[in-house]
Amino acid sequence: MSEARKYGLAAAAGAAEGPPRSVGAILWRRFLEHRLAVGSLIALVALALLSLAAPLAEAALGLDATKVDLLSLKQPPSAEHPLGTDELGRDLLLRLLYGGQVSLFVGIVAAFCAALIGTAIGLLAGYFGGTLDTALMRLTDGVIALPLLPLLIVLVAVDLTKLGVPEALTTSENISLYRIVFLIALVGWTTVARLVRGATLTMKAREFVRAAEALGANHARIMLVHILPNVVSPIIVATTLSVGNVILLESVLSFLGLGIQPPMASWGNMLTGAQELIWDAPALAVYPGLLIFVTVIAFNFLGDGLQDALDPRAVK
Amino acid sequence: MLAYIIQRLAESALVLLIMSFVVYGLIGLMPGDPIDIMISANPDLTPADGARLRALYGLDRPIGERYLNWLGAALQGDFGYSRLHTRPVLEILMPRLGNTVILMGISLLLAFALALPAGIIAAMRPRGVADAAINLFAFAGISVPPFWLAILLIILFAVVLGWLPAGGMPATGAGAWAQVEHLILPVATLTIATVAGVIRFVRASVMEALRQDYVRTARAKGLGERQVMLGHVLRNAMIPVVTIMALNFGALFSGALITETMFGYLGMGKTIYDAILGNDFNLALVGLLLATLTTLLANLAADLCYTWLDPRITYE
């Protein structure tokens, strides 16, 4: 796959008319041709900026996102509450923005950590081959085959104090956030590992790697300096695509009451009571889900566009 | 062939053994133990009684010894009692496994029945109008949170239109229509969540097969498009699709857990979820192992499908 990408790029650079362009410029132009991906990138940046601006919105509206107001439950939109209030009288717009911070943070950080683990495993398996390769790939296949959601539910339920995690951490209000990132990274590395292993196998046979070996470079240097930069584009594509999946997984776990714990808002846990609220406040059941949907589909379009730009020979 | 099946079954048994130990250990790390629950339910029990009960049930032993005891009993067919249902766990799990197999089986068949034509139509004219529409649907399908989809379907079909029940199981002895009625929304949810991914694989795989030399040969010798597609392309294109589906069987099970929980459908997924939340350790442990076993057997079945799809493959 990466081999094809190399040749495709070289061909594009060679065939380009006018002044020679840099590889980055070619990739960027190719990416811009993918309108859905460009639109998604803009939407995601806007969403991220809006979420980060939550404290500003809080100040501008003169509200407190965590303040429970039992006298104004499930209010319709008003000047004071632009999207109305939830079942505890909290401002819906502010909760959605803070929820966005959490969902985007979990999605990006967990996908990144999973990509690190997957890259390490894929590089080691592909480069050293033999028994190590067999063992690591068996492990990967095993993790892929498992019914992950039920297992994650068990893992989430584990009492951290029994594992000897320091109390300062277990009682921290962010513990549910750290735990979900850790657990998703722990199970989410398989796709990247397989891709990196495959790409590493192809790269290992290439002349420049043999040359580096002949010059006496050690294993770590060959893997990190010679192979890794050449397998980076499948990693980028797979990681972008997995951000969407991670956000879905986080929202499911939070929805089931096992992910992000209230009072911290996440789009998933905002929907927890939604089934009972469908009648009197449908907005509460619709908006958080819609935001999850839009964010996930945007990451998927973005990943698709990146794949077209970085890997034009892939089957489309 | 027989030797291959035996080897695979032995491997599956090994994976199951490892899983049982890991899950047993994890459950030991969950907050509280059965005696804590007995004590909290009965104010007459003192901590001293608790200690005596722990010794009686062997809960004061080290985890390795407890696991071996459990394993010894399990191998003789004694999987213990469910705390929530106060009945042997297998008696609870078997009918529910049946319910889950019905839900997953119908959804999987429907997903294939819809994805095959959709994927083929999309692949025949890449970047055409039909391809764009199918592609958009597929992206939406992989990006929608399944639990939110369930909420939307409940709003539409149970609350607004009032056509179908919002969830639950039919009363015992209810007619055939009641059985079907309670299946429609869960099956629809799981099918939509599954079909999108299958469409993408079928499309990619058919496009890949269309480029092969044997397709050119078939066309050159004057076969009609229909014959080329059904006789030459489809069969070859199915091989990677079956692989992916088998690998994704664990994901299908995760989808079933969400669907069952949303609709109160008494299947394995909901049972495992309720068991973990209700500290029903025996039920959760055996349920998870049964779910894993189902996944492993599905993988094996898919492998055996290859020999039928592709006579070039033989297992030694």
Structure, described:
The complex is a heterodimer of chains A (316) and B (316). Chain A contains 16 helices and no strands. Chain A has a single domain, classed as MetI-like fold (Orthogonal Bundle). The longest helix of chain A has 37 residues, at 92-128. The two termini of chain A are 13 Å apart. Chain A is mostly helical and 316 residues long. Chain A has helices at 2-15, 23-32, 35-52, 54-61, 92-128, 130-145, 148-157, 167-170, 175-187, 190-204, 207-214, 219-227, 232-255, 267-270, 274-277, 282-310. In chain A, helix 5 packs antiparallel against helix 6 (130-145), helix 5 packs parallel to helix 16 and helix 13 (232-255) runs antiparallel to helix 16 (282-310). Helix content of chain A is 71%, strand content 0%. Chain B is an all-alpha fold. Chain B has 2 domains: 2-75, no CATH class; 90-309, MetI-like (MetI-like fold), CATH 1.10.3720.10. Helix content of chain B is 77%, strand content 0%. Chain B is built from 13 helices and no strands. In chain B, helix 1 runs antiparallel to helix 13, helix 5 (89-124) runs parallel beside helix 13 and helix 8 (176-210) packs across helix 10. In chain B, 34% of the residues are buried. The model of chain B has no long low-confidence stretch (mean pLDDT 82). The chains are: A mainly alpha (316), B mainly alpha (316). The interface between A and B is large, with 43 and 49 residues.
